[in-house]
Amino acid sequence: MSFEEVSHTADVKIRACAPTLDALFSDACDALMQVMYGNSREGGIQTEIEIDAADIESLILDFLSEVLFVSDVEGIVFSKAKVQIAGLHLHALLDGEPFDKRKHSVGTEVKGISYSGLSIGHDANGYMLDIIFDV
Q: What is the pTM (predicted TM-score) of this model?
């Protein structure tokens, strides 16, 4: 897992780096959950997500938006995501636990995932993502 929060004026900007696209998406999911709920997250409840998109930027945005939606509506705090990407199709198996106010109230509420500032790059070291979470 390799991500960091980057200074941003009003929202939360994350920069993630990973050797593969699958790992990059998984790290982005982990970053979202850490921003929202902190580090104390465990497993036990599994959820599957399938997404198709027109391009890789839409795929990451749609994936994280769906994670945010499922987390909020079903009250699940995800601890890890096993992501598999084939072309512009994503399959993710998420593992998490029920939201517990005593354990998970240390983070920042995320309202959405922004296209603004979204970029995915690739070089000899792997992939890099810059993404903004609207708070």
A: 0.91
